[in-house]
Amino acid sequence: MVKRIVSLLPSCTEIICKLGYRKNLVGISHECDYPNSISGLPILTKARFSPAGSSIEINHSVTELLQKGLSVYDVDANLLKSLYPDIIVTQAQCEACAVSLEQVEEIVSNWTLNQTEIISLEPNTLNEVWLSFDLVAKTMEAPNSSYILKSEINEKFKLLKKKFKRTGEKPTVLCIEWIEPLMLAANWVPELVDLAGGRNVMSVSGTDSNFCSWDGIKQTNADIIIIMPCGFGIKRTLKEMHYLKSRIGWQELKAVKENQVYIVDGNQYFNRPGPRLVDSAEILAEIINSDYFERLYSENAWINIAS
User: Fold this and answer.
1) Domain at 5-148, CATH class
2) What's the pLDDT tens digit per position in 103-124?
3) Which of 38, 148, 207, 225 is deepest in the core (most CB within 10 A)?
């Protein structure tokens, strides 16, 4: 029997497809946009706020919904049931990022005919991301598919480390995950920075991304600043840069004065705990260790911005 899968998170969709189960997908979330082969699948979710708003507007809307005890996303329960999924893949990591595990469990609890298994992924480190591959593959009764994928990723990381032999102290790297209010990238991002030859500052691997003060950023005065807002591409982030550039002391930051401020596509590469974190590490390597790495990724992936 071919198992029918619904994925309610972009990273889950990427994992499922990379493991070779695109043909099993019968429904996705409104944010699932990769790979191209998923185009046309039924969309089961929508946001309860306007995703077109500014950083501060989105933060306000999401905070208000959560404080009221409401979900940030709606699920089309009738459509979900009509798809007769054998497996639903969701997350229990961040209520602001996607449909919550609790939501899905409540919907499925009302079903009487379907025997649906719910998989909840909650990775906070690179190793936990790889373990989520194992979980999906095991559920599909094909654990070898995960082993092959992880082996490919490990080989790429080994090649990455061999390409540079930086002597002396690694440059300090500050990764910003939200612009207004300011939030620093954590989870797997510090590990990616380390793999790329940098030293992540102000956030800790395996912990949630955290809000921070502007004074803290000024005091840290990192060598390199990389901006990767959650859910934003480069064009969208450029429209938000005035929040940073208008802050007192921005022009005095070392990274700004030395033209070491970068914007990356956070939505496609850094906010999704999936197979393309390999690309994320390679992008960071091109930025942090440009002397050792020829640029291969386009300006859709990362750009250097003037102060």
Assistant:
1) alpha beta
2) 777 777 777 556 888 898 889 9
3) 225
